[in-house]
Structure formats: structure tokens, C-alpha cells
Amino acid sequence: MSKKQVMLTTFLLVCVVFVIGVITGNYWNSGQTQVSKILKQSELDTESFIVEQELFESFETNCALAEKRLGTLSEELWKLGKILGGQDAEEQLGEENYNFLKRKFHLTQIRTYILDKKLQSDCGSKTNIILYYYKKGDQASEQQGKILDELVTQHDIHIFALEYRYSKELEFLEDYYEIKDAPTLVINFQHVLHGNIPKDQIIPLLHG
After folding, report:
1. Given this model, what pLDDT does residue 186 score?
2. With contact defined as beta carbons under 8 Å apart, do 196 and 148 qualify?
3. 100-127 CB burial, b ≥16 within 10 A, e <16
4. Could you give the C-alpha distances from 30 to 34, 40, 95, 124, 169, in angstroms and in order?
5. How many helices and strands (H and E) does the chain possess?
6. What are phi and psi of 134, to 5 degrees?
7. Which of 2, 101, 161, 207 fits 126 for a cystine, CB–CB 3.0-4.6 Å?
């Protein structure tokens, strides 16, 4: 092989490696961008809702609008949780970025959970609220998640899924409900159920 052919072959190999790197980078970045975009939108929706409630405190609270807004926000968070809970999510996003996004996601869920509590107190909302603590890679938690997925299609429920003992700044809510293991459910802010709970034990605790 001539020197020119060697140089050409080397150049082509470098180009191929570069293109593969760009494609791979774009694929990973697209996953990261999607999660970041949804999370930022959820945070904006939460902030918007808080400002909206502060405004209504000076006038008359629009309970129907508040309930609709929180329903949309909870649905967005549930979908985002499915993305972050994917088996390849950490690999696609990178460990550091994944951990940061997941902590922000959990905090946004907790803020929305608190807003749901305020809605029930102020407006007598009958939307069912379930706080669901799970362990990653745990069979009992996976089974509980499937039961909750089924219940969501049959009842008016907002579900907030939090990974148990994920980070220190999130443990205050676990301590408040005295949660010592997962899976654990907190149904409508008062019923704390430990272990894998079947559907027929959850339904009687729901509104309506």
C-alpha cells in the first residue's frame, strides 16, 4: 500500500470515528435535552401555579382552575418519572447529570404534592393523592408500580413516585411519615401502608 493510500485510509477512519462520535453524542444529548426540557417546564408550571394561588388569595380562589392545573402538572411529572426510571436513563444522561436531574425532579414532585394538599384544604378537592416510595431494582416495588399504573387508568389519582433514601435533602418527608423501607404508600395524606399493597386494599381508601 502506497503512502498516499495509507494517509487516505487513516483520514477516512478518523472521519468515520468522528461521525460515530457525533451521532452517539447527539443521541445522548437528545435524551438529556428531553428530560431537561420536561423538568424545566414542570418547574415553570409549579412556579406559575404558586404565583396564581398568591394572586387568588387577594381575590376568590378559582378551585376548578387550580385543580385542572395541578392535574396537568401531575401528569407531566408522572411521564417524566417513567423516563428517568428507564433502565438506560443513567447511561444516556451520565451519572452526575442524571443524579442532579433526579433530585430536582423529586423536589418538584414534593412541591406539587404539598400544593395538592393545599388544594384539598382550601377547595375540598376529591382527587386521590398517592405518595409512592420505591426501591430501584426491587421486585416488590416493581409489582407495586404496576398496580398503581392500573389504578391510574381507573380512578382520579395523582401519584408521586420517589426513590427511597435517594438523597439527604429529600429525607425530611420520609421522616415526617416515618417511612423505614420501600415499597411504601401514603394514600390521601394519612394512610401509610408498608410493603406490596394489593389493589383491593388501596381502593377502599380512595375518595369516591
Report:
1. 97
2. no
3. ebbeebbbbbbbbbebbeebbeeeebeb
4. 6, 15, 16, 41, 28
5. 7, 4
6. -135, 165
7. 207
DSSP state at residue 137: T
Does residue 149 sit in helix, strand or coil? helix
Strand partners, 158: 129
Topology of the domain covering 126-208: Glutaredoxin (3.40.30)
- Which residues, at least 6 apart from 152, have a Cβ–Cβ distance to it below 8 Å? 78, 159
Q: Nearest to residue 75, comparing CAs of 191, 183, 159, 3?
A: 159
DSSP string, 50-109: HHHHHHHHTS---HHHHHHHHHHHHHHHHHHHHHHTSTTHHHHH-HHHHHHHHHHHHHHH
- Please tell me the distance from the alpha carbon of residue 172 to that of residue 138, in angstroms, as a whole number: 23
Q: Give the CA distances from residue 167 to residues 68, 74, 124, 157, 172, in Å, rounded to whole numbers and listed in that order.
A: 31, 22, 33, 26, 10
Query: Measured between alpha carbons, how far is 115 from 69 in angstroms, rounded to an integer?
Result: 11
Q: Give the integer Cα–Cα distance in Å for 188 and 153.
A: 18
Q: Can you give the pLDDT at residue 38?
A: 59
pLDDT (tens digit per residue) in 52-82: 555 445 445 677 777 777 777 777 777 777 7
Q: Where are the domains of the chain?
A: 1-125, 126-208
